[in-house]
Amino acid sequence: MNFKSFLNKIGCDDRIRGGYVELNNPEHVFVLQEYLINEGYNFDEVVNKTAKLFEAGRFPERQAYNKDGILVTFPTKEYRDRAVDKGTHFAENPKKSQSNIFADELPSDIQRKLDQSKEGESVTLDSELEKDIEGDSNSYEDRTPKEKKIDAVAVDAILSNETPLVNYSVDEAKRYGFYNKGFLWYDSNGDFIGEQFFDEGLGRSIITNEKKSKSSDQEESEPEAVEPKPEEEPVEPKPVELEPEEEPVVSKSKMDIDMDVLRKLGMGSNISEKDIQKYIDDVNLSTVTLSPGPNNKYLFTPVNISGLENILRKEETKNNNKTEKKSEEKTLTITYAGSVKKLRTKYNVRIVEWGDSKKIGDKNFYRILVIYIFYKKYSDKISLVSRQARGLGYEKMQVDNINEWFVENEIKIPLHLYIADDSGQFRDCEVNVNGANKLAGSGKADLALNANQIDNFWISYKHGDYWDENGVSLSSVPFQQYGSIKTLNRRLKDDEKWKEIINSFVNSMKSIVDDKIIIPKDQYISTTEKGNGEKKLVIKNVSDGKVDEEKTNILNINSTRELLLKSNSATLDKIFLNQANVNLNKTIYFCPSGYNVWMDLLDGSLEAKQIAGMSIYGLNFKFGSTEYGPENVQCLIQTGEKLSVGFYGEEETLGIKMKTDSKGHILFNPNLPAPKDSDDPILIYRPVVNGRYTEVENFVSTERNNINIFLGCRILIMPYGKIPGTSIKL
């Protein structure tokens, strides 16, 4: 593990304000403990080694003594209680039983250690980390100008197969699969990476593509990088006078300023075009880096503008290779909806992110300038949109991956398909395929495999992990829903079991929504205009068409009602103007903000399983049916990575096999996630009926002589694991 990269990774955590770890900040040390444990370091050793960083009694709920009488602080109270219960740590000092973590006086040896840590004594985590960081400072701000220069160059080559990697240790080079011939290093494709030499300034060997023509002393005498002001982050530059021989990142000729684009990228409304022009034309932005953000699977370290260009070239190479069809689709996408903006691949995978800029000179101000320059320079290759539909890019990623395999292996004749189940055994799917395509529309199938362009195997695809890193425990459910209840309602409106489920759900909802109004059959709701042109819903008499002022005032008695009535006025007009509803009373329920309820869909009956199957596999699902299609898919595939595709068998039995990574999962038709109250570990994937507050949504049901209208309520078929803990079980 490269410790500098490790610290940079921690610095990107939202809990580390300022971007670098301060060992005298207890909250930072808690985060450090968490990351070390996740990296595989021994839990007890991490806790013991960081013990001196905490003051006794400051975190009593997290502190306990080890067997040697040293007071240690755990990442959380749960960790501490677990260690005490196991007997590895103690609430009271085993070396001095009368002392404990709440005592006014501490044992002298512990107090001495704490006093030393207060005086700034350096803390060693373990010998391996000591070795990794030898020659490096614990503070990001203590880097020498030379180290800053080398670090800035290093990010240029992130994720680029063409540009040599700079400032990589020998251990890192081996880990990335590079190999050497003497002091010359090459990547796995045989392309030259750089030359290995010992850098006296860093005190270690690095690999660089620059010829070492100058001594370290000569290099130190070169013009130094611009030092930021103390209150600014290291990545934030200030205006500098460039030496004649230096080549600035941006040309001296003025760049056109498009304020509409800059506002979308997050530039504050109080920042003028004149200010922006000055910084774009006169500031060296080459050291400004953008963060990959938390849980990024594409990028692990911050990247500067040269690194972004390398990423663009890499993605272009992917898109333009011989297996890809010509497309007008752009290579990268910037999404600007919300306060966090993102640069993404065409498959919707996040590369970097940044926030809004509030004033000139804050960290996001410089980042927005870099992204703006990058976008304007490559606007023919980068799209700028409010948001991308979640999941659609991932579906295309899977299709492109499968088709690429067929083209690379020159498959012309369809091959027999085998897909791995949970046990790792490949299941005969009873079809031959030689292509894949993404399906349009709102049907259950997202992807289809085909034989000579004729679809014959349909897949519902959910992007995300099913298992955790160890393949033992379930990951959190990554998708929102199985489907809308309105779709099922249209298909099953005459089904007795469905009526039973809906009536039970509606009756339970009615009992917990207190805010309602009953409109008798001799009255109706109509839309009228106020004097200022604003529309308002009023109650009128069927007999004479006059407005019932008293009931109208009750109807609009508060702002919540007015909002829901206005948001759903089209639905109300449709219901009250429908002649079939004239002789029915109407009850309007106003669901409050935060409203959330759920009910099990599966009750053990075959009829309920049939309905659950329709919500998962499609409206045409039926037990025992092999008439598959877009609304009766053969399987549901869930994975966060590309499917693994390869040959199955040999010669006469040659076929194609597909499987997910170790964290993925495939559910085959007609299997269901789990029956009601099952102890099966996939209980969280069982389908349930969920009603939740959504201002512009409504649900309508009819019973006997009354129509129930729930305003501000959306009803879905959800996986149980997506139901919030505050939801009410019906």
User: Termini separation (Å)?
Assistant: 51 Å
Sheet of most strands: 7 strands, mixed
Helix content, binned percent: 25-40%
Pairing-aware structural class of the strands and helices? alpha+beta
Overall pLDDT metric? 75
Beta-strand proportion: 15-25%
**Helix tally?**
20
- Tell me, what's the shape? globular
List how many beta strands DSSP finds: 28
Low-pLDDT regions: 97-111, 116-143, 146-167, 211-253, 322-326, 675-681
Evaluate the radius of gyration.
Answer: 32 Å
Please describe what this structure looks like.
With 730 residues, the protein is an alpha+beta fold. It has 20 helices and 28 strands. Strands 16, 17, 20, 21, 26, 27 and 28 form a seven-stranded mixed β-sheet that branches. A hairpin with a 2-residue loop joins strand 26 (687-703) and strand 27. The model is unreliable at 97-111, 116-143, 146-167, 211-253, 322-326 and 675-681 (pLDDT under 50).
Provide a short characterization of the protein structure:
It contains 20 helices and 28 strands. Strands 16, 17, 20, 21, 26, 27 and 28 form a seven-stranded mixed β-sheet that branches. Strands 13-14-15-22-25 form a five-stranded mixed β-sheet. A four-stranded antiparallel β-sheet has the order 3-4-5-6.
Tags for this model:
730 residues; single chain; 28% helix; seven-stranded mixed beta sheet; alpha+beta; 20 helices
Set out the fold topology.
Layout: H1 3-11, H2 26-38, H3 43-49, E1 63-65, E2 71-73, H4 77-86, H5 108-118, H6 127-132, H7 145-154, H8 170-175, E3 179-181, E4 184-186, E5 192-199, E6 204-208, H9 216-220, H10 259-264, H11 273-282, H12 305-319, E7 332-335, E8 340-345, E9 350-355, H13 363-377, E10 382-385, H14 392-408, E11 415-420, E12 426-433, E13 435-438, E14 447-451, E15 454-463, E16 483-484, H15 485-492, H16 496-512, E17 516-519, E18 523-529, E19 535-541, H17 549-555, H18 559-567, H19 569-577, E20 585-590, E21 596-600, H20 606-617, E22 635-639, E23 644-648, E24 655-659, E25 665-668, E26 687-703, E27 706-719, E28 728-729
Parallel strand pairs: 7-10, 11-24, 15-22, 20-27, 21-28
Antiparallel strand pairs: 1-2, 3-4, 4-5, 5-6, 7-8, 8-9, 11-12, 13-14, 14-15, 16-27, 17-20, 18-19, 21-26, 22-25, 23-24, 26-27
